[in-house]
Amino acid sequence: MSYASLSVKDLTSLVSRSGTGSSSSSSSPLKPPGQTRPVKVIPLQHPDTSNEARPPSIPFDDIFSGWTAKIKRMRIVDWVDTLFPCFRWIRTYKWKEYLKLDLMAGITVGIMLVPQAMSYAKLAGLPPIYGLYSSFVPIFVYAIFGSSRQLAIGPVALVSLLVSNALGGIADTNEELHIELAILLAFLVGVLECIMGLLRLGWLIRFISHSVISGFTSASAIVIGLSQIKYFLGYSIARSSKIVPIVESIIAGADKFQWPPFLMGSLILVILQVMKHVGKAKKELQFLRAAAPLTGIVLGTTIAKVFHPPSISLVGEIPQGLPTFSFPRSFDHAKTLLPTSALITGVAILESVGIAKALAAKNRYELDSNSELFGLGVANILGSLFSAYPSTGSFSRSAVNNESEAKTGLSGLITGIIIGCSLLFLTPMFKYIPQCALAAIVISAVSGLVDYDEAIFLWRVDKRDFTLWTITSTTTLFFGIEIGVLVGVGFSLAFVIHESANPHIAVLGRLPGTTVYRNIKQYPEAYTYNGIVIVRIDAPIYFANISYIKDRLREYEVAVDKYTNRGLEVERINFVILEMSPVTHIDSSAVEALKELYQEYKTRDIQLAISNPNKDVHLTIARSGMVELVGKEWFFVRVHDAVQVCLQYVQSSNLEDKKTSFSRRYGSDNNSSSFKALLQEPLLSMEK
What we know:
By secondary structure, the protein is mainly alpha-helical. The chain has helices spanning 8-18, 60-73, 76-83, 86-90, 95-123, 129-133, 137-145, 157-168, 176-198, 210-227, 230-233, 243-252, 259-281, 287-307, 334-362, 369-384, 395-403, 410-430, 435-447, 452-461, 463-479, 481-501, 546-559, 588-603, 615-623, 626-630, 639-666, 673-687, and strands at 153-154, 392-393, 505-510, 517-519, 528-529, 532-537, 565-566, 575-579, 607-611, 635-636.
């Protein structure tokens, strides 16, 4: 039985007195009669809306007070740690415990990086030496300014493809301008990363769905792999970021196919894949994974040196020595390169910062995303002054670095030293490296980026995200990288806007034997009360979604499931209760719309009640004058409190109707046994 139910004796006396009750007031369509059994309602404290209690319209103090307080608390050591994150691990370095692990990890990643860097430079349309340049200065700079202790930065396949695609329409790969633009691109990427890090704007990328990134990466990996097939086939193919021109050119040049590079490349690729998978599967053999690229290079170089096959193209002469300092010569093409710079910055945020945060959590230390982004930016800016093209964090090398138990940024310094030694002493040996060996390294690396497991997972879990994955990957494959990214991001934002403009709204019912109210679709056993609709809005209410919310509320007046109802039989909805605890924000447009809805309800004798608004929402509603309009007595702490009060109004109204009907049929004798029997009907209905 509801807390609001009354005994037969109470009801009889109530009806006998109700004839003197006044008509409904403007603020309450159903006004309860005088004395009823009291309902236990927790009083809701309304906020003070006086001018003295009103905060400034734009609370600058709230925005900057946190920063100001933090700056005042910072000591010199804190400032040093903020500007140079490397001092955080330098001060606590355990030489006996960490040194051996960092040395082994640094050497392992260095051995892996040398051949990969040259391969990725070729993918970017640059001479192999620029891959080594991009792996030298940025690594040392990142070790000082970067927050992650395990992230391995340098050239990566996806960024190399973006560089190649951006520069391909401006300059030919054989031109000096191509190299200059790649270096300028690194400078622009670094500037954007620093700006976003300083302004703490990394959160903007959160609006891009992970399924979009996965679809884009998978499609790009396929394009990268096909672009390297030319070194296996022995003839040139179209330079494009679209799959159709590449496949057409592969088929058109089939008559030029040569077996020697195909056999050598395939052999090296098989060896790379076997070593990679064995290294992943068995921890004691994990060194095979890091040694795989070097093994492929050594094997290919040995075959080329011994047998001199004329159909296998070699890397050729590579300049010896460290990169020299030089400032970008011209910024004429900076405007053209800005979109690609922004895209590479986005990749850095989504991939590099994501990897860094995951590794920090695994190794139990804190990492600030914006500080990490700033460190990557400084590494790219200073790297561009020493002939580097854009660098970012690598999935594979970071995983190897972490699996090798790297503890601090010293492992990165060791890797940088290995790259420096290679530039100083080993470049004469690199001229015998077969091009197909470098291509095999790239194909092996990007094969793991084709994330078909993610597609299967999305199909099973969320069809909408699977649709995003499919749209992004398809458009990237057939229409190019830029269009693929724009379409993917566009659909991702469209889904976000759709979810925001069409929030989830639930009709609540009472769970049997409790005072808890839950979604009647999720809990079929929950029941509602005749004449009362309880609605929960599971989102902030603002100008973009208030129309949708109003439409749904109108629907609920007639669309509530009658089979779950309990209580007195009534002909229409008398009360709409809004459960607002999930509503974190409400703007002025939404408040005005709610006022209009209240006035609309008022014309149909429907009372609006509001339950459990949070402090900010309650304050906004109070300042708008809506509390006085609706009436303070219609704001409640709990849904159950609102239901109790509304039930009393419904019962009182029902008794009025029954008394009028009885008087017309039997006269004015309200104490007759017939009327008492009539009063039993609603009670029996309430007790069910």
